[in-house]
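The protein record quoted in full:
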Amino acid sequence: MQQGSICRKSTLLPIILLLYVPVHVSAHANALPQAVVAAHTIFIENETGFSELQYTAMLELNKWGRFELADSREKADLVMVLSSGTHVHAIPDGQFPRTTGLNAFSEDTVPKGHTRIALVDPKSGATLWSDLHKTESGKVKNGHLLDGLREAFDDYDKGKNRK
């Protein structure tokens, strides 16, 4: 009786693995929305307060060659928003910052020591893709600022070639 049980388990394991792998590859390959893949121009908005990070993003984008830098948000297919855990917002005279509501910061802010790289639709403002990268002030730690984006495109291209 135990041999039959072991035999069934050893037969089911490869079947389960075969079912899992295509689903995993397919889900990973579709991580980039079509709007990101089809984009040709990109505009950078730097909300970090460190011009070095914007300069680094511009250099990496130019070297990569996947996107052309746009002069304005209106001329871009995508907006790359660089943001960190420190934000400064202007509040009109006579008003005070609120801890809830419109002026409040959400709990899912960027962790200290990181920069969020988000690709945003310039018309709707919807975030299409985002990644976090370790930074310290205006310096990039461990690799390049846009490594996550290049990896997402590589994964997309690999998944497209398998179909």
Q: What stands out?
A: The radius of gyration is 22 Å. The longest helix spans residues 2-29. Confidence is low (pLDDT under 50) at residues 13-30, 99-107. The longest strand covers residues 127-136.
